[in-house]
Every structure is written in C-alpha cells, then in structure tokens.
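Figure S4 source data
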Amino acid sequence: MKNDIDNFVRWVKSNHLEATVSTNIDDINMMTHLDLSKKKIRELPESIHILKNLSVLKLSNNRLSKLPESIGNLKNLKNLQCENNLLDEIPSSIGNLTKLMILNLNGNRLKELPEELYNLTNLTRLTLAANKINSLSEGLKKLTKLLYLSLDTNELEELPDAFASMKSLYYLDISFNHLNFLPESISAIEELETLLLEGNELKNLPSLESHDMLMKLDLSDNSLKSLDFNISKIEDLKILILDNNLLKKLPDEICKLKNLTNLSVSSNSLICLPEKIGTLQKLEELDVEDNNIKNLPKSIEELKNLKNLYIMNNLGIKKPENLELKFCDMN
C-alpha cells in the first residue's frame, strides 16, 4: 500500500498537480471528489485505486489514450467524466463500478464498448456522443434505470431491440449515425420527452403514437416520404423538426397538436400546407423555406402568437398581411 501511495504522489508531482491534488496521506484517504479536467494529462497511474472513497472523478479535456485497469477498484465512484480525450478502448474492469450513475465518454475514439459496461445497472446518464461506435449489444437492455442516453455522431448502422426495459428514459439522442430503421422497442419508452434522430437514413418509422409525453421530435436530414403514424396522439409535442426529407405533404393531424410552438419543414417537396394550420394557436415559429409552395392557407392569419416566419425559396409566397411578425424572410 505504501508503494502505491508513493507512486501516486510521484505522479501528482510529475504532472504538477499539487495545487489540485493533496499529497497528504490523510487527505488521499478521505478524498471524495477529484477534478483533473483540462490538466494536459496523458495517463493515469495504476495507483489511482488508492482513492477508495472517491465518488466523483472528472478527467475531461485531457490527452488520455487509455484508462488503467485499476480504475475498476474505485467501488464508490458514482460520477465518471472522461469527455474529450483520446480513448480508443475502455477497460473491462469498468464493470466493477456498480455504484456508477453518470458516465460521460463523449468525444473520444471508441469503436466498441466492453460487454462489462452493461453491468452498470445503476446508470441514469450515459453519454457516448462523437465516437466511432459501430454497434451496441443486447446487453443495453440491462440499463433499466437510464434517464438520459446520448449516442449521436457515431457509426451505428442498427440498434439492438433493447429499449422496452428503459421505462424511465426521458432523453434519447441517436442523431448523425447511419440508421435506416429503428427497433420497435423504441415505441415502448413510456417517459420519453426528447427524441433526436437527425442525420440518419430513415425511410420509415415505428409507431410513435404511444409517446404522449414527447415534447421535442427531430427527424430532419433523413429520407422520409411520409409520417406513417397518427402524430396527433403526441399531444404534448412542442417542437417538430422535419427539415431536409422527401415530404410532399404534411398530414392534417399536425393541426391537432395544440401545444406546438415550433414547426420546421424546410427543404422538402411540399406544395402546400394543411388548410387548418391556423388551429395551432401556440405556434411561434414556422419554417417552410425551400419547398414548392405557391400559397399559404388563409387560416395562417389566425396564428396570433406567430413571431418568426421563414418562407424564402418557394414559388412566390407572400407575407401574410394580418400578422404582426417579429421576423419574416422574403425572396
């Protein structure tokens, strides 16, 4: 044990971290929080395991290419932040951190995850964005306590059908991958409030009607020709983004979304908007740029809360005369 402490102290001094990390033995034994973010650290010593009472470890924005296997001995760790490093793998010992609730691995070079990671069944927040992950295993279904899951900007071509067990998940970001379909189990996430699917290759969607708590849905930059579900069932929806798809019309059911504040459908192939769009009384922003619309429906003048209207690059649309807009772009 003394050798490990000596090793850790030498590491602290060699990295000039004395102002951040105490080298006093009593302090080391009692340490619960350690923030080593932005310290230009290239490696952690195996002797990190002596910090047995550590509950929060922040290592973000360094130059770490790996984590020591001994990190799995930090059995009291609840929050591990490793964002923006150079990690290309995670040690299997991470599966020993069974008290871990927050794990941030955004902005690394990970291509895969160790199966042991799915043993972290107390995780409530898992962020894996901006890596090179190309697959996830069925073990994902064991993370039943997840509230927040970010998988955006990876290389996923498919997802495991593992979401039915995530009853409390309220935030799911799978944007900027290579998905051309979604597993049906996404329809079973009962508490979902934000679903971000931008920048994939989706042509069809599972039914999203059961997501009656959903407030933000981003389907932009896909290959959708229609919305093949009754969107009016998502009664709490506030933000709907459908930009850059292949839509030729919007379903009339959109006009039943009484809580909608933002509707964006730019860069599609729309030739008109639903006639009853004026029923969207809470709508504050409407973007229909880059379509083939000749006329706006008369009912648009009933949108008294509309502040911003984007209509450029259509077929001669005119600004509605009876709306007091803060902004309206024109050709």
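Figure S5 source data
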Amino acid sequence: MKGKAYLVGAGPGDPELLTLKALKILQAADVVLHDDLISADILALAPRTAFIQNVGKRCGQKRITQNEINSLLVSLASSGLQVVRLKGGDPFIFGRGGEEIEALRQHGIGFEIVPGVTAALGAAAAAEIPLTQRNVSSALVFLTGHRLDENTKDNWGGFASSGATLVIYMPGPDYEGTALRLFDAGMKGNTPCALISRATSPHQQVYHTTVGELRSAPRLPAPTLLVVGEVTALGHYASLRLEIELQSAQQEYVALVAGQRSIAPDPEARQEQERPA
C-alpha cells in the first residue's frame, strides 16, 4: 500500500471542534506526529494500534528540530504508512505547514491538507468577541509575537494604525514588551485588548485590559492569544479581570470588618464608662 501524509488541523483544543474529515483521517492513522498542545482527548481518537509521537516545540524547548520532523514525515510515508501530522489550530497559520509540504513534494510523497479551526477564531468565539463588527472594525490581521531573530524589527506600524483587529499569536509572558511594540507601531494606550488563555478548554481564562495597562495583567498559562482592538470591548465581560477585582473587594471587606471588630470596645467596659460616678 502506498503511504501518504496528512497535515491535519486539530482546532483550538476542544475535541468537538475537530472537523468530520479530521476525525475520519485520525481514526485511520498508522502514525500520529502531534504538536505539544494536542489534548489527550483528541489523541485518544486515534486507533489503539497507531504509533503516536510528540514532536512539539513549546516555549523555546525543542524535542526535535523542524528538519527532523520533515525527515520523519518522508521516511514514514515512504514505508507505506498513513501518517497524520496533527497540528493545533490550522496547519497553515503559524503551523509550519508550508515547510512540511515542501519537503514532501521534494521526495514525491503524496499528501493532503485538512484545515482546522484556527486558535484566533476559536478563542474569540469562546470569549464572545466579534473579530469584525460594522462601524468598529472591518479588517482582521493575524500576527505572531514570536520572532525567529530577536534583532529583526517589527513591521506592525501599518496594522496598528489601520483600525483593524489584531490577533497576536504566541505573545509570550513579556506583556510589557508586547505593549511597547504596539506603542512603537502607533497604538494608543486606551485601546482595549483581551488575553485569552487555553481557549475552548475547561481551563479557559479571559482577561480584559488596555494596551496601556497590559504590563500589569496576570501571567496566564500558555497557550495564550492577545486580541487587540475596539471589538474586544464588545465581548462578554465576565472575565478573569472582574473575578480578580471581585476577590480583591471581598478581601478588603473582610479585612475592614475584622478591623472594626478588633477595635470595637467591650460592651461591659462601655457600660462601666457610662455609669455616673
């Protein structure tokens, strides 16, 4: 049997956001080479006989290089296996899908692309943020906060001044640095933005803030997305920020009540003071 490689988008995390085609191909796989962030629930959909290997690269820690992944795809498919390269989100949006199909083409290996729900769309839907809205934003731009060469200068200026909604993949934990990059591009400090962590999973968190206050935002667990633009103010505001503010208010109230109790005079002592001499 002739082998084939499938570049399959696994979506933003929720197994129910897999496409029917992605599910069908995954269930017929001989080999699954998956990204680091693919959930155990999604991997469980592969046959029990399938060989499953994590080839993810996360937070700068690389178990395997991209060239090694390319070689694995070529060698496994060449041996007659049905190989699924399972990627978070969509294979062609910051997923290095283009590099992998180029390697397959060079070696004459058949392949197929199965698109997935990209993280930006899944995260925005889960946070109830419309990425476009009439009279607010009529354009949408996907950017990455990760730079292959730290000496490379950003070219975000045209995007920031266009009024488009910006979705920044992989913003990393340096929120202040990201805010400075947006300021340098001409973004105003009062521009609303939202951090979305582990979108569509049971552990999802959303934090609404502004570009000017982004540096003070809590460091949320990866993977995160940063949505920047006026549309974020239209999202559901029952966010982590409100939870934090509510917890803070409750703590202040408890402290205030405790303080009042500690300084309140003893009732018997008060009666003693009020008796006439």
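The first helix runs from residue 20 to 26. The radius of gyration is 25 Å.
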